């Protein structure tokens, strides 16, 4: 078992049977890779591949932003095939012109800064997604482990119920209990068998979810080593600036850069040209120079500037919200984690007490001092206490996953 509880001394008669069953299952079962191995291969998870691709795209746009605008070449011929004196091609004037747009007013630098800011946001989102996936994988891993452990506990509960039923049958044969008690005992056995079947189905479903989430080639049939029994690092300190705040700050910076880009786009577009003109009639050439400046009379890019400023305000609001919420969220998550550890200690103590109570109740039942109803109630308390201990550990994993997500790290 992945988490052990002390067994009552009287349970030796069926413990050997349970151990043999579990050993036979474990002999055929191939444990899932450890959690550390799974998070080391996060680059195979589709959502991780997606954010990596988005980061590559952002880096490519940042690289493209450094490119200079392409020059243009034009050829123009005048004074040909007209009326006299421009018959034919003899009076032609042909001009070859090379034009180059100029990025003035800091337009190129602003464009580069904006693209780099977007790439920074993409990198931080990639990190956040990786930690989120790692946390989700930890939760699925622990849920599969809990389902496996609860299946084992359900099998043990079935064996307990069978042992109690056999004891009832002996008392009936001795005439110390009415036949009705046997019917009740058999009903309890069937209910325990149904619960074991349900737990086994839940375990198989949890194993299937883990196999799919981790993209494993072979299906998971066992969990080893345990994640439920692992305690979080109490000495870990969260980063000075939480990842959520870092992303909000990067988004605000990117929107601020976008405002600068849009404002500079409203400036006149300037290009210069250099050309050579051929005078066919005089059989000679001459250079031409030119400059082209757009006049921003109708399109002053006001709509794009307003949109960029609105996005900037939205990013600033998100940053303020993140700063206000993150500390409260982290404090609450840490409190839930601390409470879960206290709950585990209480649950383990409850298991110990329930096992002692059941041991005494069973001994009392065998000598006729405890009724079947009392024995059933105490056995139910034992089964409930064991499952509560498993659930308490699962709650601790969930609290650690939540805290790790706020800190920007993998759980445990």
TrEMBL record:
<protein>
    <submittedName>
        <fullName>Transporter</fullName>
    </submittedName>
</protein>
<dbReference type="InterPro" id="IPR010131">
    <property type="entry name" value="MdtP/NodT-like"/>
</dbReference>
<comment type="similarity">
    <text>Belongs to the outer membrane factor (OMF) (TC 1.B.17) family.</text>
</comment>
<dbReference type="Pfam" id="PF02321">
    <property type="entry name" value="OEP"/>
</dbReference>
<dbReference type="InterPro" id="IPR003423">
    <property type="entry name" value="OMP_efflux"/>
</dbReference>
<dbReference type="GO" id="GO:0015562">
    <property type="term" value="F:efflux transmembrane transporter activity"/>
</dbReference>
């Amino acid at each position: 078992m992945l988490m052990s509880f002390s067994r009552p001394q009287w349970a030796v008669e069926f413990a050997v049977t349970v151990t043999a069953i579990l050993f036979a299952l474990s002999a055929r079962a191939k444990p899932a890779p450890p959690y550390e191995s799974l998070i080391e291969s996060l680059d195979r998870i589709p959502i991780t591949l997606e954010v990596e691709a988005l980061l590559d795209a952002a880096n490519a746009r940042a690289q493209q932003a450094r490119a200079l605008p392409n020059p243009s070449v034009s050829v123009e011929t005048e004074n040909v095939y007209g009326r006299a004196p421009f018959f034919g091609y003899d009076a032609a004037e042909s001009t070859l012109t090379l034009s180059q747009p100029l990025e003035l007013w800091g337009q190129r630098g602003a464009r580069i800064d904006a693209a780099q800011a977007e790439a920074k946001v993409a990198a931080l989102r990639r990190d956040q997604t990786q930690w989120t996936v790692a946390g989700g994988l930890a939760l699925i891993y622990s849920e599969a482990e809990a389902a496996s452990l609860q299946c084992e506990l359900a099998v043990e509960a079935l064996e307990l119920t069978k042992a109690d039923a056999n004891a009832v049958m002996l008392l009936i044969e001795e005439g110390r209990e009415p036949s009705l008690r046997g019917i009740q005992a058999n009903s309890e056995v069937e209910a325990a068998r149904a619960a074991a079947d349900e737990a086994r189905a839940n375990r198989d479903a949890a194993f299937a979810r883990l196999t799919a989430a981790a993209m494993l080639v072979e299906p998971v049939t066992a969990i080893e080593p345990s994640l439920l029994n692992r305690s979080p690092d109490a000495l870990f300190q969260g980063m000075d600036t939480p990842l959520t705040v870092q992303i909000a700050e990067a988004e605000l910076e990117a929107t601020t850069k976008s405002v600068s880009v849009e404002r500079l786009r409203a400036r006149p577009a300037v290009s210069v040209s250099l050309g050579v003109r051929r005078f066919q009639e005089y059989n000679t050439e001459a250079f031409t120079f030119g400059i082209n400046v757009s006049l921003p009379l109708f399109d002053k890019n006001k709509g794009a500037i307003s949109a960029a400023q609105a996005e900037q305000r939205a990013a600033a609001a998100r940053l303020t919200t993140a700063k206000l919420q993150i500390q409260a969220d982290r404090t609450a998550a840490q409190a839930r984690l601390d409470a879960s550890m206290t709950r585990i200690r209480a649950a383990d103590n409850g298991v110990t007490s329930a096992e002692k109570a059941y041991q005494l109740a069973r001994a009392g039942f065998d000598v006729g001092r405890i009724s079947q109803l009392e024995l059933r109630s105490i056995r139910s308390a034992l089964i409930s206490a064991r499952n509560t201990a498993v659930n308490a550990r699962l709650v601790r994993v969930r609290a650690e996953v939540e805290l790790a997500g706020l800190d920007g790290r993998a759980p445990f």
